[in-house]
Amino acid sequence: MTLVVRRLFSLSGSLSVFAVLAVLMSCSNNPYSEKDDDVNVLYTVYSEAPKTLDPAVSYNVTSHSIIGPINETLVEYHYLKRPYELMPGLAKEVPKPNVLGDGRVSYTFALREGVIFQNDPSFELGGAGKRTRKVVADDYVFEFMRVADPGVNSPVIHIFSKIEGFHDFGVRLLELRKDPAFKAMPVREQYQKAGPIEGLRAPDDYTFEVVLTAPYPQLIFWFAMPFTTAVPWEAVQYYDGNDGRPRFADHPVGLGPYRMTHYDKQFRIVLERNENWYGALHPEWKAPGAVYPGEGEEGDREKGYQSDELAGRQLPFIDRIEFRREKEAVPKFNKFLQGYYDKSGITKESFDKVIQGNDLSPEMASMGVSLDRVVQLSVSYIGFNMVDALVGTSAGDRGRKLRQAMSLAVDADEYIELFLNGRGVPAQSVLPPGIFGNDPEYKNEFRAVDLERARRLLVEGGYPNGIDPATDQPLKLRFDTAATSATQLITIRYLVDSWRKLGLDVEVKSTTYNKFQEKVDNRVHQIFQWGWVADYPDPENFLFLLTAAMADKHGPNSANFRNAEFDALFAEMKSRPDGDMRRSIIEEMLGILEQERPWIELVNPVSYVLFHEWVNHYKPPGFEISTLKYQGIDSTRRGELRREWNVPVMWPVYVLLVIAIAIIAPGVLSLIRERQ
Amino acid sequence: MLAYIVRRLAYGAMVVFGVLFFLFVVFFWVATPDDIARRALGEKAPAIAIEQWKENHGYDRPLWPWESFDNNMLFAHYKSMLTFDFGRSDADDVPILEKIAGGVGPSLALTVPMFVLGLVASVLLSLIVAVFRDTYVDRMGIVLCVFGMSVSILLYIVGAQYLIAKLLRWFPISGFDPSPDVVLRFLALPIIVGLVSSIGSNVRFYRTVFLEEVHRDFVRTARAKGAGEARIMIHHVLRNAMIPILTQIVIAIPFLFTGSLVLESFFGIPGLGALSVEAIQGNDFATLRTMVFVGSLLFVVAQVVTDVSYSLADPRVRLE
To answer: DSSP assignment, residue A151?
Structure first.
């Protein structure tokens, strides 16, 4: 035993010495291999590991930022133009809705011929030795069938419910799958037997037709999202998670400018140029989605987003995209400052260091960092539960005046300054700037602070000085929240204090997110704070949040607002093209919301994007769309600056050694003297 | 001894059984199947998708046996754990065994060096302070140990990230990459933080153990025979202090596999500790219960191994 112990300690000692030496030799803060220093790579981050990369299922920012460049779509957003404008992607044109005689509507996409998928072993299923094949209309039909398949669990299954036969296909599939023999078949065969979906047609390889049972003009925006990309049946069948093959959810096979070459979702994801991309194979097409745009909005030339030299240049500019996982904001920002990330937001803690006045601090400017601000297509708001007896519809005029008074007490400007470092604009309505129907001149009469008027409204509502006549005490209300941290709660305290000025006693009920969601589902919440980020740049994507149809359990109308007039106007608005008539309907709808006050509109966030001098022509979008193929990097300049900024400071090692010797040496000397 | 081991394992099985029940009750006390589905599908998922997800993942069944004896979630929970059929993660449908296999490497890469270096450094330092007992080295050592124990690991993490990674630029602030040319850079800082944060309590513990042995008769005899101080400390004191050292070592072994929750989370190391934290944050019941089950199994086995190792280290110990 003694021998074993001695050997173990001796081994541990040797290992320790080796480890200390190895650590000293590895001394560098560079998170990447040195051989990548001057390579044309863009380094970007994600905080949460993607749950799935299946385009039919993934529905969050991280997943879309990864699969966006892999799964290109039939139509896409113009990189530079604002307001956002759709342009052809893999379709030759953006189709117009074709109204059929019986009220149905169809969209016909003319597909580009000669587009092929990225190389992948799964195509062997279609023939020995095959590594790719051409993209045909059936690949779009297949993807829609996957979205309709209840087993796939697509979160947008309801969006396409107006496609003729879409829902019935899912029902048939579920029924047929009760037979184990059917369930064991490859999914493509299952779809063939359960199909077709009447509203999805592929009359030839390059024509894809979608027929809706009723008009849904916003459908076209969903063709700019990965849900509707072409998916090869071979990949879905091959990547089944068996025999060492990954699942399709972890191995996207697409047709975009990039393909995935490394996937370890916990820390690193790599995309590289797809040599089969139509833009690379057919540069002579000069397709809108394959070349840098020649036109944009005012100011783009000054900011370097647009130039004669750039216009018409073949995309993409960058060879490799490295996604690195960063869970914490502070390390992420520090790595940006060290030059290891190319772009960054600004952490709250670093805001004063980065922004001084309304501009970049001299320190940032001296590093060559640039700043761009973009108003997000999103809105944060305080909501009232309209089925609540005190603040809701059943309280009648009394409840309405209470909501109006509370709205008049909340100072959005101060809120933005105090809690968002000024990164936001006070929201005047449900619609953020940049969305059709948002009038920059519009001032909501209940969104400017006016405590006197608020007090008068309380008197009219039967709550003079905020006193509830039933109890003769300040009216007790409840703010339900999932916020538990001190920094989150302080923002709610601010709101509560605003209402206290009117004499109202608002209690903060903080619970876990799950419990809060349960309250919302059961409609027992009272006042709450929430937000919405656009899926697409259309007013319908915001106004639908307050329609009665969305007030079901799990529906996004958490205010449970139901107004027949509003719903009728919404139905009218959503089927109209942008124009004066649509604008006037929207004004009417916003007028209803202004008076009824189911929401106190709070902030349209403004994102501050920092980027280093080596990042070229990056125009940040206001909502989640893939723009990687348009961005450029000067990797030589990046390499130079990184090396200059990151020389290790070694003198503390020597100081520590001297201190250690100074402490130990007298002891050793005294021991030696004692023994002598 | 065999009867003893069997008896201890049977007690352990009951502990594991109880842990699984406790986890089930606590988890579904704070979360519902709807919450699990919503986290998996995203906030914007409609009711129809949530209901379908629950059906596809077996969360549409009643929770308790008295609601449906032959088709309830509690029995299904026990069945899948006790048959080691861990299934797939609720968050992303990845097989849980695959997740564990992916996390073991990074966890061990962090915890094993931290454990070995920590053990060697603690034993060496405590031997030194034991040799210099009642001198200023001993007293200064104790002060430093108490100081080290009093500081929160979070402060060590933030301080090290700021000082060592940001100002001195010795290592990356956080992150992980298993490539051989960079992996050490990512591990160095969390290992240093792990070492510094634990060394105070370890040194104090081992010092106490060694001081107890230093005053024994056999040490006096060895000294009287003219043995050198180094020989006395390593051959006599260290050997006779093996039982408490072994206890520390064997009990720590399960935690090498389950990873360091705090260090992995703050340094972005994708080990099993981070996996457990993410499972809690993401309402991933399937992954969380597997991690708890594996952790409790390892702990029970380690307890038995500790007892057995006593008898091997010290022939006077009998297991009955």
So the answer is: T
Instruction: Please list, in sequence order, all residues whose beta carbon lies within 8 angstroms of the beta carbon of residue A633, skipping any fewer than 6 positions away.
Output: A40, A41, A42, A317, A318, A342, A614, A615, A616
Interface contact flag, B170 A153, Cβ < 8 Å: no
Which amino acid, A62?
T
Q: Which residues of A touch B110 (CB under 8 A)?
A: none
pLDDT at B281: 86
Distance between CA atoms of residues B1 and B308, nearest Å? 8
Whole-number Cα distances in Å, B162 to A45, A46, A331, B189: 20, 22, 9, 11
**pLDDT digit string (tens) for A511-537?**
888 788 889 989 999 999 999 999 999
Omega into B106 within 30° of 0, i.e. cis?
A: no
Chain B contact set for A241 (CB, 8 A): 95
pLDDT bracket for residue A2 (50, 70, 90)? very low
Q: What pLDDT shows up at residue A562?
A: 96
CA angle A495, A496, A497 (to 5 degrees): 90
d(CA B120, CA A391): 66
C-alpha distance from A259 to closest chain B C-alpha (Å): 21
Residue with tokens 């006599």: B236
Residue A649 contacts B, CB cutoff 8 Å: yes
Q: Model pTM?
A: 0.87
ipTM rounded to 2 decimals? 0.82
Characterize B113-122 residue by residue with b for buried, 16 or more Cβ atoms within 10 angstroms of its Cβ, and e for exposed. bbbbbbbbbb
A570 min Cα distance to partner chain B (Å) = 20
Q: In the numeric block, which tokens belong to residue A617?
A: 């022509």
Q: B278 vs A49: CB contact, 8 Å cut-off?
A: yes
User: Given CB atoms, is B167 within the 8 Å cutoff of chain A?
Assistant: yes
Q: Are B177 and A31 in contact (CB under 8 A)?
A: yes
**CB A406 within 8 Å of CB A445:** no
- Which residues of B are less than 8 Å from A50 in CB distance? 92
Which is nearest to A376 in space by CA: A33, A2, A61, A56?
A61
Residue B12 has pLDDT above 70, yes or no: yes
Residue with tokens 């107006």, as numbered in its chain: A162
Q: Which of residues 365-394 of A touch B (CB under 8 A)?
A: none
Sheet holding A105-110, edge to edge: A98-99, A105-110, A207-212, A200-204
Residues of A in contact with B283 (CB under 8 A): 514
